[in-house]
Each structure stands twice: as structure tokens, then as C-alpha cells.
Amino acid sequence: MKSSLIKEAYDKNAHIFKILANAKRLEILNLLIVKELKVEELRQITNIPKANLSQHLALLRHNGLVQARRRGLNIYYKIADKRIIEPYITLNKLREHHIIV
């Protein structure tokens, strides 16, 4: 039986899953799914040190998961495509039904 995806697609999907396999990044995405937030708002809500938050946001931005815009001295972040949260929702549903631990 031949695989339905080419190796490159598996590699790209694995890369995105690695990014999403971090609890802090999931928290950031979950907050941004509700509304656009300033970096300082994200820092206050998550209690992530500014340098670490900056690294998480840079990784998410570099991989097209969030978008940034500058307004004056503030940088605002939002989800680039709200569908990115679907794997998170699916995993929560599976866990609720005890399919995964």
C-alpha cells in the first residue's frame, strides 16, 4: 500500500507538530485565538519572561502561525489562521473521551 502523503509533507507536518508540542506556545496560541494582544499583555497573562516570550513568538511568527503588527511602541500579535488551533481542540476532545492519556 502506497502512502497518501509524500515524505516532504510528513516532514513539514512533523515540524509544525514539534512547534505545537510546547505547552507555553499552546497557551500563547490559545490566548491569541480569542483576540489580538500586545506583547506586554501576553507576558503578564502567561508569566513567561520577556526574553523567552520573544523567542516563542519569533518561532511562531517565522513558521506562519502568528502575525505581528507594530503600532507606535507596541507590537500586537494575532493568529495567522484560526484553523491552527484545531489539533489542540481535537486532542482535548480525545483526552476527554479517554482515547489518549
Specify the overall morphology: globular
SSE string, helices as H and strands as E: HHEHHEEH
What's the CATH class, please? Mainly Alpha
Helix content: 55-70%
Supply Rg. Answer: 15 Å
CATH fold title: Arc Repressor Mutant, subunit A
Q: Just name the CATH architecture.
A: Orthogonal Bundle
CATH superfamily annotation: Winged helix-like DNA-binding domain superfamily/Winged helix DNA-binding domain
Beta-strand percentage?
5-15%
**N- to C-terminal distance:** 30 Å
Low-confidence stretches: none
Taking the sheet with the most strands, its summary is:
3 strands, antiparallel
- Give the number of helices: 5
List the helices and strands and how they pair.
Elements: H1 7-20, H2 23-34, E1 37-38, H3 39-46, H4 50-62, E2 66-71, E3 74-79, H5 86-96
Antiparallel strand pairs: 1-3, 2-3
Quick description:
The protein is α+β, with helices and mostly antiparallel strands. The protein is 57% helix and 14% strand. A three-stranded antiparallel β-sheet has the order 1-3-2.
